[in-house]
Amino acid sequence: MSWTRSMRLRLCVGAAAVAASALSTAPAPARAAEPRDVRLTDLVNPFIGTANEGNTFPGATVPFGMVQFSPDTGHSTGYDYAQSRIRGFSLVHLSGVGCRIGGDLPVLPTTGDVTRTDYAKYAAGFRHEDERASPGYYRVALDSGIEAELTATARTGVQRYTFPATDKANVLLDAGQALHRMVASTVEILDERTVRTAITGRGFCKDTLPYTVYTITRFDRPFTAYGTWDGAALAPGARTGRGGAYLRFDTTHDRTVEATTALSYVDAAGAAGNLRAEGGRSFATVRRAARRAWEERLADVRVTGGDPTRRRTFYSSLYRSFLAPNVGEDADGRYTGWDRRVHRSDGFTYYQNWSLWDTYRTQSQLLALLAPRESRDMAISVIKVAEESGWLPKWGYGTVETNVMTGDPVTPFLTNAFQQGLLKGYEERAYRALRKNADGVPPADSPAVGRDANEDYLTRGYAPYIKGHEPAKAGHSDYAFGASATLEYALSDAVLAQMARTLGHREDADRYAARSRNYRHLLDPSTRFFRARDTSGAFTGPWSPAQSAGFHEGTAWQYQWLVPQDLPGLVDLIGGERLTNERLDEFFAYDQLLADPARTAREVWVKDPYAYYDTDRYNPLNEPDLLAPYTYLSTGQPWKTTDVVHAALTLFTDEPTGITGNDDLGTMSAWDVLSSIGLYPVQPGYATWGLSTPVFDRVDLRLDPRHHPRGALTITAPGTSREDRYTQSVSADGVTRERTYLTTADLRRIRTLRYTVGPRPSSWGTSAQAAPPALR
């Protein structure tokens, strides 16, 4: 996701170009399956997605950590594999975002006299063959002869620099430059080992309210000299400044310098408290702890079968799925709420960073399955945002709302948590916030945009398209994308109706269920495609289904299938199953796909990282299309879901170009994980999981027994890794299932899900009763 995708330089680093470079990945095992004692972290390649606008980062973090300690090379979001100079190692990075944010406090070791303060000029050269990365660890040998190593705890970044023998070894802490737009910064040298900063920034895809991060850095030995700078003016011996600080060490005999930097979004005392709570340990100790944390997290899923590349790709995607949301509270439980006040969590961990337009489709469901305790706390955190600021978030960064993207993504995010049983004790509090959000518009004095087209949507049954409409606040306006906003609102209304009905709010449930069918108001009977309508009610033109007027980051073709709440109704509007399947086949270039799946994926579907406007083909690069392959489950041709999904999976590789589009805080990675294991949330915000043939012969899921009484689920598909990809039958605990879906309740009851596969399509799942039912 990114407003700037179509506007930025379309950098496209080809796979052939990067294949020649040496990557720091684990050795490729020749075995068909990994032994149980294998280190799963060795199967993760953090460099995947660092080219071709995947916008991931290779640096060190722990699962859901506040700190993501990683190099910045000059790319707008941090690290780009095509670049060869490191400006600094900074504390905050969001994995796979499309707009600049974070990059706070870039730190860089140098030697010699300090003469420059612009990190674009003092940046250090490096080569990829001198880099290594694994979960929780990053290392690079710089051209300057200095080796830099990074690791992390939840709230600290730990760095180790090995210098040449010199009495002029420097560490530069740059408080005045970052990836975001800088508002203000201060730096203070507190004593002979300690530096404190406060950094205020703003930005993202559009402007935002300012937010402040506080840091404190403690070195393992005293400096021999120091100074600060403001702008280009260096002040040797000064203890305060507005730009940055340099610290000098004598490494003539002891060549290693270690430091720990703690981060807080609350205040300087919070950063100091985080340093006390998580600092004071050696680099090696922290590195081992980070690796253990990742081993434990990755061990929730064990796969057997598939080739080594597929397994490395899978575990790398699983790793990226656990990078966000991020801990937002300090070690003492304090956090800065969206009301700009300091609060303290009580009985939960407060999280932040909400790429909801993206993650509500895949990642939130994967986390609910594999990390229910954290998912519950994440959902409670979103409820707290509403209670403290007055409105639910749309796309939140740190302590502020960015209002980026369209629709009402927070509703399926929270209703998914409800359907997965994660809101016990908070059901009515969540419902009150969702009801307010669904029925109203935030006032002018609120930073939130919410459903800003809601007044028209509620009276007209659709959000009108007003070209170029800008809200009075930072962010996007749903009016500028009225067609896609209408489809997103209708989906959210459908899943909110289900929650309302379960909680006994029957009148609300009926009202929201009726609104969930508003998608029909966009259907042009002359074309049987969705079209934007203006304020007079007329369909906008000139028009073709491959044009994007009124659709956010997509076209009428791609948004055609975003009606998961009522696919039977959509099929009827298109003209029945036969015409719908013909349209799906055209959309996926299905005949070409059967002849050459990988080539079709790379040459017909995907043109470049941001080619999702003005196209009539499936585009797995971006979120509106993620559900599309699973539409065949509702049109009597489920084998085609498998064909399309397995072709799309070829776009995930273990190279820097190996992610389709921006990863968007784990959205694309979660799609890879879920589609690979054959369980996919086909009605986001509800409890329906579509079935398609896994790519692994066996998948063992370790589940939290507090939410899944069985404590585990084993999925088997013997032979699928040998190209027998078509489902012949499915059984759950030995009982044959003809339906193409399971519910969350089903998943909690069963221990084994077995696919029988073969070389050709079968009649499994083709009956009218097999498809996921509409939400009424």
How would you describe what is shown here?
With 776 residues, this protein is an alpha+beta fold. Among the domains are: 15-298, Beta-galactosidase, Chain A, domain 5; 353-552, alpha-1,2-mannosidase (Glutathione S-transferase Yfyf (Class Pi), Chain A, domain 2, Up-down Bundle), CATH 1.20.1050. The chain is built from 21 helices and 35 strands. The strands form nine sheets. A ten-stranded antiparallel β-sheet has the order 2-5-6-7-8-17-12-11-10-15. Strands 18-30-31-35-32-33 form a six-stranded mixed β-sheet, with helices on one face. The chain has a five-stranded antiparallel β-sheet with strand order 4-9-16-13-14, with no helix packed on it. Helix 9 (410-419) packs parallel to helix 12. It is globular and about 80 Å long. The two termini are 30 Å apart.
The gist of it:
Helices cover 27% and strands 21% of the residues.
Topology diagram in text:
Blueprint: H1 15-19, E1 70-72, E2 85-86, E3 88-90, E4 107-111, H2 119-122, E5 124-134, E6 137-142, E7 147-152, E8 156-162, E9 169-174, E10 181-189, E11 194-202, E12 211-219, E13 225-230, E14 233-236, E15 240-241, E16 244-249, E17 256-264, H3 268-278, H4 283-298, E18 301-304, H5 308-321, E19 326-327, E20 334-336, E21 342-344, E22 351-352, E23 354-355, H6 356-359, H7 363-370, H8 372-389, E24 395-397, E25 400-401, H9 410-419, H10 427-439, H11 454-460, H12 482-502, H13 506-515, E26 523-524, E27 529-530, H14 556-559, H15 567-574, H16 577-587, H17 590-595, H18 597-605, H19 638-649, H20 667-677, E28 679-681, E29 688-691, E30 698-702, E31 712-716, E32 726-732, E33 735-737, E34 741-743, H21 744-749, E35 752-758
Parallel strand pairs: 31-35
Antiparallel strand pairs: 1-3, 2-5, 4-9, 5-6, 6-7, 7-8, 8-17, 9-16, 10-11, 10-15, 11-12, 12-17, 13-14, 13-16, 18-30, 19-22, 20-21, 23-24, 24-25, 26-27, 28-29, 29-34, 30-31, 32-33, 32-35
Helix pairs in contact: 5-20, 7-8, 8-9, 9-10, 9-12, 10-12, 12-13, 18-19
